[in-house]
Each structure stands twice: as C-alpha cells, then as structure tokens.
Amino acid sequence: xxxxxxxxxxxxxxxxxxxxxxxxxxxxxxxxxxxxxxxxxxxxxxxxxxxxxxxxxxxxxxxxxxxxxxxxxxxxxxxxxxxxxxxxxxxxxxxxxxxxxxxxxxxxxxxxxxxxxxxxxxxxxxxxxxxxxxxxxxxxxxxxxxxxxxxxxxxxxxxxxxxxxxxxxxxxxxxxxxxxxxxxxxxxxxxxxxxxxxxxxxxxxxxxxxxxxxxxxxxxxxxxxxxxxxxxxx
Length: 234
Prior knowledge:
Layout: E1 2-6, H1 10-24, E2 30-34, H2 37-44, E3 51-54, E4 57-58, E5 61-62, H3 64-70, E6 76-81, H4 87-92, E7 97-100, H5 105-117, E8 128-133, E9 136-141, E10 145-151, E11 154-159, E12 164-167, H6 171-177, E13 182-186, E14 189-192, E15 196-201, E16 207-211, E17 216-219, H7 221-229
Parallel strand pairs: 1-2, 1-3, 3-6, 6-7
Antiparallel strand pairs: 4-5, 8-9, 10-11, 10-14, 11-12, 13-14, 15-16, 16-17
Helix pairs in contact: 1-5
C-alpha cells in the first residue's frame, strides 16, 4: 500500500507517518510527502493506486482545490484537519473519512479500516463526482447521473442530458462509493433506480432497462430479480 501525506507542518506529517507504519505494518510499502498546494497537485497527478492523507489548510492555501481534483482520480482520500466545520463539504466530494485534529492512533486506525473495507465515513455518500475535461475539473451532481458504464480501467457517467463523462475510478470502485439507489444491473452497467422507468424483454428474451433520459441499458438475468424487488416495473 502507498500513502501520500499532504501536510504543511513537518512534525504532524512525521507523526502521521509513524502511526501509519505502526497501524499498517508490512502492508505499507511507500510513503510520500507534500507540504504545499503546488507540490501536492504535482504529486497527485502522478498517482494511481494510493491513499491520500490531506490537511485542508496548507500554509494558508485552500486544500479543497486539491480535494476537488482528488474526487476525479482513482485513489482515495482521508482528510486530517482541524477544520471540522467543513466535514460535510468534504464528504460531499467522496472522501473515505474525516479525522479531526488532534487525533489518536485509534482514530487513525479506524480511518484506515474504512479505507480497506470501502466503508463510507458516517454512512454519507458523496453528492458529486469529479470529471476532468481539457485539464479542468468539473463536478457532476450524483443525482444527475442516470447510469455508470464500464470503460476498461475507467468509467463513463451518463447524465440526464444524455452526455457521457469519463471518470478515472473503475466501475467496481464507484459501486462502493455510490448511494444505495445506484444498483448494478450488468457486469458493465450501474443505474440510478430513481431515474429508471421500465424493465422490458424483447422477442429474443434479452432484458433492458429504459432510463429517464430515453436511453436503454442491458440487464443481466441474474440482476432481474433484484430489480423486481426494488419495485422497477417488468
């Protein structure tokens, strides 16, 4: 496991590293550090599979800019900050947990446990998913997403206006992240059941789900019973 500690106070950063090594043991393979927003942005742009431990105040600079970028990246983020009044805002951007300063080893261990289990902090799903277009990070409201489609190591978010946005997390990673009314209906598709309109079967027996924006998503037989339980019309 690789972790990245983004913290402007060296003493705090080293304490986080020390506790992380004690908690994770042999699972921890590498630790990187950044103390400024510029250094952090440069570092996270090169990350793939990692856990980011982020302070929201980096020498007076706004850590939320980095958090918005992180929401569109394949890694996961734990915020470690004294800015507890912004916890809800941080959870809206899909963080795994918010650890308030000052913190204990036990509290940090709980955050790492949530990271390992893909449990969302306080049971709160994000309100937005971040996508990158021409170097700019845009936030897509979860409730505007009608379906999520697998795209190799990435995903595509299909919205109510019919547009598709490439997201850097895999379909499986997003399945853990999305609210309960998002349900997998096929190995390559997840749908927002609140925007599902009709489950039908064609003459050849293939099932498909019609969505609010008019598009249709194939439904595997194994998921059909679950959709009936959810109250989606057959």
